[in-house]
From TrEMBL:
SUPFAM superfamilies membership: DnaK suppressor protein DksA, alpha-hairpin domain (SSF109635), Glucocorticoid receptor-like (DNA-binding domain) (SSF57716)
A Pfam family assignment: zf-dskA_traR
Entry-linked InterPro entries: DnaK_N, Znf_C4-type_bac, Znf_DskA_TraR, Znf_DskA_TraR_CS
PROSITE patterns hit by this protein: ZF_DKSA_1, ZF_DKSA_2
Zinc finger (dksA C4-type): 85-109
Upper classification of the organism: Bacteria, Pseudomonadati, Planctomycetota, Planctomycetia, Pirellulales
Domain Zinc finger DksA/TraR C4-type: residue ranges: 82-114
GO molecular function: zinc ion binding
Keywords: Metal-binding, Zinc, Zinc-finger
UniProt protein name: RNA polymerase-binding transcription factor
Length: 137
């Protein structure tokens, strides 16, 4: 499969994901509205509702961010610049685009950006617990 064919297939995936996110957001928002209209029973019910509201709003926020990234990626496709790194201008490898279809940068530029902003961490997370002390009972 050529790069252009792969990119067209990725665009179709982005459109399907965008449509699914629209449906999910509509459902999440209607559920949130519905929960706000219900009367709570007691303090514990109110606390549980507050926790559920927070979880729902965080889910909506994450879905909204992804939806924005997908819309931007579709716009880049329509502008014929989809799949090119915004940092260096080189083509983003198809394997990266398959993993993150709305990626705007290649792995090298992403690593450089994370290092500059402090987003990169020197902690080896798969080794965090290697030297951890065991709690005594």
């Amino acid at each position: 499969m050529t790069r252009n064919d792969s990119i067209k297939k990725l665009r179709d995936q982005l459109v399907r994901r965008r449509d699914a996110l629209h449906r999910a957001l509509e459902g999440d928002l209607s559920l949130l509205r519905e929960l706000h209209q219900e009367k709570t029973g007691d303090v514990l019910d109110a606390a549980a509702d507050t926790v559920q509201d927070e979880l729902n709003s965080q889910l909506i926020e994450a879905e909204s961010r992804e939806l924005g990234a997908i819309n931007d990626a579709i716009a880049r496709f329509d502008a014929d610049c989809f799949g090119n790194c915004e940092g260096c201008g080189k083509p983003i490898p198809i394997t990266r685009l398959r993993a993150i279809p709305y990626a705007t940068d290649c792995i090298d530029c992403r690593r450089k950006a994370e290092t500059r902003t402090g987003g990169g961490s020197s902690v080896l997370w798969n080794r965090v617990f290697d030297n951890a002390e065991v709690d005594s009972v």
